[in-house]
């Protein structure tokens, strides 16, 4: 069960569905996807977890950030026995070691991490373009909400005839409760991305912001404000160390006290070392935006410093292959079988 921060208010999903999820009437015949297979649901829906971003969508630290920006395409070691995973980690070490001196310095780490972050971003853009084309078969450069609605239902296993009939007259509500809730959430995200002009349809750039808001300055600001609002106990528009590092979570949070304390420590370290830049004890909206923006040029340098502090045991300002292997748990979470299961949870 996912951990969620407490919301300030409860929203009636039934009311929101009637207001937001029944789109304005449009002619679906011009853009019928009757001859196109249903796109995979996981590709169609905005991803819960976004690679190479330091913050999760639910307000939690992305604990796999080190791994994602160091390994790049983490599938290189997914599902591999631990010995092979370690060997591939060493191979990556030698790729980063541009001067072949047997050590990784901060500059080499910075350059490598920047390349991996850009790689993640480029992969996201390529995937987005392919999905957009699937949803826009007539190539007019826009995807209507109703078109997205239709593909959502097809991806969830509803038949084409059933879906098209429902979208025409709504006589029968074919939505399951979980589908209705998700559509409400995605409609809010759709509305956030619909900015030029607000017309209930998205062009390819807006659709990219819908699926990957971490690449849109405006949507990063929206998310920052949402996170601040959820954590800001005294409602002064900024976060103290205590508010950030020890957020309220729902009572049914399944984590153990030890796990919770470990997360508190990680959050506290992030606040002190990476967020509160002017060291005044509070995180402003601007500081949070700099922290969350993957395009911030300071991200790769900060992560290089973080990795150096984590693994440079002899404090000589560089990492040896032995130090990397000693701290392989930073990148290889499972020491028995594989690392894939720990990579994708939830911006």
Report on the structure:
The structure is a single chain. The chain is mainly alpha-helical and 347 residues long. 51% of the residues lie in helices and 3% in strands. The chain contains 15 helices and six strands. The protein has helices at residues 13-21, 41-44, 65-71, 82-96, 106-135, 145-155, 160-169, 177-193, 204-211, 217-231, 241-245, 257-275, 285-292, 298-311, 321-326; strands spanning 103-104, 143-144, 201-202, 239-240, 282-283, 319-320. The strands form three sheets. The chain has a two-stranded antiparallel sheet with strand order 1-6. A two-stranded antiparallel sheet has the order 2-3. Helix 3 crosses helix 5 (106-135), helix 8 (177-193) packs across helix 9 and helix 10 packs across helix 13 (285-292). It is globular and about 70 Å long. Residues 1-35 and 333-347 have low confidence and may be disordered.
In short:
By secondary structure, this protein is mostly helical. The protein is 51% helix and 3% strand.
Give the number of helices. 15
Q: Give the N-to-C terminal Cα separation.
A: 17 Å
Radius of gyration: 22 Å
Spell the H/E element sequence: HHHHEHEHHHEHHEHHEHHEH
Sheet having the most strands:
2 strands, antiparallel
Average pLDDT figure: 77
Beta content: under 5%
Task: Report the structural category.
Answer: mainly alpha
Low-confidence stretches: 1-35, 333-347
User: How would you write the strand order of the largest sheet?
Assistant: 1-6
Large-scale geometry: globular
Give the proportion of residues in helices.
40-55%
Number of strands: 6
